[in-house]
Write a structure and sequence with these properties.
The protein is built from ten helices and ten strands. By secondary structure, the protein is an alpha/beta fold. The chain folds into two domains: about 90 residues; about 90 residues, TIM Barrel (Alpha-Beta Barrel), CATH 3.20.20. Helix 2 links the parallel strand 5 and strand 6. Helix 6 packs parallel to helix 8 and helix 9 packs across helix 10. Bound molecules: zinc ion.
Length: about 230
């Protein structure tokens, strides 16, 4: 059962999964500072990126972090580049210089993704129009996946019709419009995830299967195919 985007908490003791470990196949998110872990745990799948909230105001610090992303991106168990993206939610709480760099940092991730031939994982809040514009201008040759989709059917359709993949998580359980988007989504363009929420991936698959009047096993099969297809270019 693939969980395409999952976080670990990092305490003094080391990484602790945010959601109960169900032995599922999960792509674990790492920050540039945590990137070394991908080398230490070659059997675990990871994504590595500089989150739009975490962009440092200091440009040397940013360059160092992006160098760590670029270097780690080549490891075979690093399966996705990101999460990177555009997010205006915490604009007031971020240094202006850092906020203004979101698009440049996204472009750097997109360049790395092209270079290592791996999909880009996107974190987008509100700034969907801009991301779609960037996608259409760049015409990436690797897949782009919008994670944590929490909006409705119309935006979902805009994304998938443009060629992006959309990953759904806990919003399926508590947002009717997102459940509706999931119900209507092109099954060849979707993934499921737990993100940083305290939910079990089997619960997400069960809800997702119920909404689409299918079985968990069938959904698993289709999503596994989507995942394999990401690297089939
Ligand atoms: Zn995340």
């Amino acid at each position: 059962m693939l969980d395409i985007h999952r976080h670990w908490h990092f305490s003094g003791e080391g990484p602790v999964p945010c959601s109960p470990d169900t032995g599922s196949r999960a792509v674990i998110q790492l920050t540039p500072e945590q990137a070394k872990l991908a080398e230490d745990l070659p059997g675990q799948m990871f994504s590595v990126g500089l989150h739009p909230w975490d962009i440092p105001a200091d440009s040397d610090a940013m360059r160092r972090q992006m160098a760590a992303v670029a270097q780690t991106a080549r490891l075979p168990n690093v399966r996705l580049i990101g999460e990177a993206g555009l997010d205006s939610l915490k604009k007031d709480r971020m240094p202006e210089a850092a906020y203004d760099r979101q698009a440049a940092v996204l472009a750097q991730h997109a360049d790395i993704a092209e270079k290592v031939r791996k999909p880009l994982l996107l974190h987008i809040v509100r700034r969907y129009g801009e991301v779609l514009q960037i996608y259409r201008m760049r015409r990436p040759t690797v897949p782009w996946i919008v994670h944590g989709f929490g909006r409705g059917p119309e935006l979902m359709r805009q994304l998938t019709e443009a060629g992006l993949y959309v990953s759904f998580g806990a919003a399926l359980l508590d947002r009717p419009q997102t459940a509706e988007a999931w119900a209507e989504a092109d099954i060849r363009r979707v993934f499921l995830e737990t993100d940083d929420r305290d939910v079990d991936i089997p619960d997400i698959y069960e809800a997702a299967a119920r909404i689409r009047h299918t079985t968990v096993a069938e959904l698993q099969r289709l999503i596994d195919l989507n995942f394999a297809g990401l690297y089939d270019m």
